[in-house]
């Protein structure tokens, strides 16, 4: 008696263990199929077919169907079912099926409950096909949001059980997740096309023609540089404003005439100038003024900077406000501009960096470099442009500067990081350090731009767009730099 009881327990244990092993093997198989789809080695229809056919065999059903809601208002679904010729594959019907045509589907859809029906109960659901003996139909999703339905028909040697419903739902979840990923991929491809078209449009409107480049190069050598251009006090007068592009080219030539990228700098600078909008303050004159300060620093301290640093500083400075819309980060955030949603911090600075990378890629300024080195240039230029966000500098870099001043352990990397940040911050505001004639005009232009921002409809005045505070804002920023550095 004891031996018989022991053998029975052992057989039951082995049977349970065998079932668990088979179940685990089946689940691992589903996961492998899903991974093939995720790695783009299998398309979505093939995934549905493979998972559903494997599930059909696992629960020992004669037929299996898979449904995806395509129009919930019209109660239409896409149907995947076995083909007449290819019995080992599911095919999606071209036309959607109507939910009202199948009472089993309607019940499952409306109640979000699985349905296991067989025998005489089939008549309640208007099943007239004599070959159908049993149906197991399982939904995936919530009551108000069914995302998939799977239906198994005719169980071999018996009726469907709860465990079969669990496995059907498990398999349908894989297919439903893959469908969400499939839709996301389609949306991504659409957005990728939109972005590429937008990039082409931006490049098209900023791209100079060959005639423009030839004309510029023929005239630039006829343009003498001002005598005091290597001094901080110099600033272009009214007669010089039409020659800023020529002066920019000469400054690049002074620093980089033997560098491989210099042959492409004319076309690049023409595109950069076209990229600046006609705003009162944030225009090409402002970009030139900032780059001039950087140029003077690099001219006077040439041995203190590597060629890599010089190149990145000059490009970042001339591009740091490209495509500036003439409003502040605060305005973009309060008006819920898409740019503010895309870049939560340093919105404009990130946008200017993006536009700079577009031009660098298009004109192949550093195409002679290995890809890893090119990425290093773009990363450095990106960080330099972000340094011009003084609000971030005040909250992060200035406290770090005070910490380093009081730290006896000198860290060259951190100090150079802060030095370049200071150079970008101060050069960006250098217009206010010129003689009164120039600084007065620059400040008036800046006030005008802020006034335009303030007057935009539906926007309350922010700190940076409050005209009454305008004369003090620049002095406060300069004072902050002076105090912390």
From TrEMBL:
<dbReference type="GO" id="GO:0007165">
    <property type="term" value="P:signal transduction"/>
</dbReference>
<feature type="binding site">
    <location>
        <position position="320"/>
    </location>
    <ligand>
        <name>Zn(2+) 1</name>
    </ligand>
</feature>
<protein>
    <recommendedName>
        <fullName>Phosphodiesterase</fullName>
        <ecNumber>3.1.4.-</ecNumber>
    </recommendedName>
</protein>
<dbReference type="Pfam" id="PF00233">
    <property type="entry name" value="PDEase_I"/>
</dbReference>
<feature type="domain" description="PDEase">
    <location>
        <begin position="209"/>
        <end position="445"/>
    </location>
</feature>
<feature type="binding site">
    <location>
        <position position="321"/>
    </location>
    <ligand>
        <name>Zn(2+) 2</name>
    </ligand>
</feature>
<dbReference type="GO" id="GO:0004114">
    <property type="term" value="F:3',5'-cyclic-nucleotide phosphodiesterase activity"/>
</dbReference>
<dbReference type="InterPro" id="IPR023088">
    <property type="entry name" value="PDEase"/>
</dbReference>
<dbReference type="GO" id="GO:0046872">
    <property type="term" value="F:metal ion binding"/>
</dbReference>
<feature type="binding site">
    <location>
        <position position="321"/>
    </location>
    <ligand>
        <name>Zn(2+) 1</name>
    </ligand>
</feature>
<keyword id="KW-0378">Hydrolase</keyword>
<dbReference type="InterPro" id="IPR036971">
    <property type="entry name" value="PDEase_catalytic_dom_sf"/>
</dbReference>
<dbReference type="InterPro" id="IPR002073">
    <property type="entry name" value="PDEase_catalytic_dom"/>
</dbReference>
<feature type="binding site">
    <location>
        <position position="428"/>
    </location>
    <ligand>
        <name>Zn(2+) 1</name>
    </ligand>
</feature>
<feature type="active site" description="Proton donor">
    <location>
        <position position="282"/>
    </location>
</feature>
<dbReference type="InterPro" id="IPR029016">
    <property type="entry name" value="GAF-like_dom_sf"/>
</dbReference>
<keyword id="KW-0479">Metal-binding</keyword>
<dbReference type="InterPro" id="IPR003607">
    <property type="entry name" value="HD/PDEase_dom"/>
</dbReference>
<dbReference type="InterPro" id="IPR023174">
    <property type="entry name" value="PDEase_CS"/>
</dbReference>
<feature type="binding site">
    <location>
        <position position="286"/>
    </location>
    <ligand>
        <name>Zn(2+) 1</name>
    </ligand>
</feature>
<comment type="similarity">
    <text>Belongs to the cyclic nucleotide phosphodiesterase family.</text>
</comment>
